[in-house]
């Protein structure tokens, strides 16, 4: 049964609006997922959807009915909202009529299954949700085993992380841990840590990245901390030929990930041609 909501004072609408706030997300262990693609990937990954708010007048006509039926079969509550109410809980300029409240996923550090040639991203203290979401999207595209979020600044359940990741937050193994915990795991599995820094003497294309590697990237303003710079097995730089001395962290991560893919493609093609 679908319940209709026309008032912005409805407690369910108020909760959805409050989930834009990190404190509420932490207190409730809930978060928002908006958009057909994002929700489809969440459902595919078996994310627990608690409730779904729909506004049919905003649908894009993709395959919303089937998706809604799937979510309803998983015991989620479905709420039919007026356009004005729906736009209050949407965080997009052009909403497509689907917003869900879901339970957060928390995976232990040792739950990761590494491939024979492990491929990891270590993202330390990334501050901007858009950058973190883009890193997740690139990591998914490059076929990494896991993304390790160290000493987080941005909540991975920030709506803008979900949006920028286009739902790959749900299809990629994302682990939150301290830098020391992640380093210990890398040492345990003999995974070399590759630190990206403008101060390195070698370009990222000059070193062998075909073995087990973890690409470590740091904050937008300061880069990696001294901890990771001292513990890194390899330091690489991306050549800069203009007045800027560094790239956006998400752009730099994407370049480094695809250099790993490029180098490995001939040597270990089966891992990437999935």
TrEMBL record:
Catalytic class of the enzyme: transferase
Biological process according to GO: methylation
This protein's record includes keyword Methyltransferase: yes
One family name in Pfam for this protein: SpoU_methylase
EC identifiers of the protein: 2.1.1.208
Gene3D superfamilies reported in the protein's UniProt record: 3.30.1330.30, 3.40.1280.10
Record domain RNA 2-O ribose methyltransferase substrate binding: where: 32-108
Gene Ontology molecular functions: methyltransferase activity
Superkingdom field: Bacteria
InterPro entries from the UniProt entry: Alpha/beta_knot_MTases, MRM3-like_sub_bind, Ribosomal_eL30-like_sf, rRNA_Methyltransferase, SpoU_MeTrfase, SpoU_subst-bd, tRNA_m1G_MTases_N
Keywords, ordered alphabetically: Methyltransferase, Transferase
Family of this protein: Belongs to the class IV-like SAM-binding methyltransferase superfamily. RNA methyltransferase TrmH family.
PANTHER family, per database record: RRNA METHYLTRANSFERASE 3, RRNA METHYLTRANSFERASE 3, MITOCHONDRIAL
Protein name (Swiss-Prot/TrEMBL): 23S rRNA (Uridine(2479)-2'-O)-methyltransferase
Upper lineage: Bacteria, Pseudomonadati, Chlamydiota, Chlamydiia, Parachlamydiales
């Amino acid at each position: 049964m679908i319940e209709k909501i026309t008032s912005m004072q409805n407690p369910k609408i108020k909760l959805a609006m409050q989930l834009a706030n990190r404190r509420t997300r932490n207190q409730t262990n809930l978060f928002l997922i908006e958009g057909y693609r994002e929700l489809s990937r969440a459902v595919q990954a078996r994310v627990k959807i608690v409730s779904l708010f729909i506004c049919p007048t905003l649908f894009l006509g993709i395959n919303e009915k089937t998706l809604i039926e799937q979510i309803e079969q998983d015991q989620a509550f479905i709420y039919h909202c007026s356009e004005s109410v729906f736009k209050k809980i949407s965080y997009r300029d052009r909403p497509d009529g689907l917003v869900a409240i879901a339970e957060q996923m928390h995976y232990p550090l040792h739950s990761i299954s590494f491939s024979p040639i492990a491929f990891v991203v270590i993202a330390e203290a990334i501050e901007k949700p858009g950058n973190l979401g883009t890193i997740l999207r690139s990591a998914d595209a490059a076929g990494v085993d896991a993304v390790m979020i160290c000493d987080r600044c941005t909540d991975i359940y920030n709506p803008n992380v979900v949006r920028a990741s286009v739902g790959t937050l749900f299809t990629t193994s994302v682990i939150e841990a301290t830098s020391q915990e992640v380093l210990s795991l890398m040492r345990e599995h003999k995974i070399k840590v590759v630190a990206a820094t403008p101060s390195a003497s070698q370009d990222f294309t000059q070193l062998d990245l075909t073995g087990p590697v973890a690409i470590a990237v740091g904050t937008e303003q300061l880069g990696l901390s001294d901890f990771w710079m001292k513990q890194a097995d390899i330091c690489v730089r991306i050549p800069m030929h203009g007045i800027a001395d560094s790239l956006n962290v998400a752009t730099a991560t994407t370049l480094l990930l695809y250099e790993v893919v490029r180098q490995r493609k001939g040597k270990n093609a089966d891992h990437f041609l999935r």
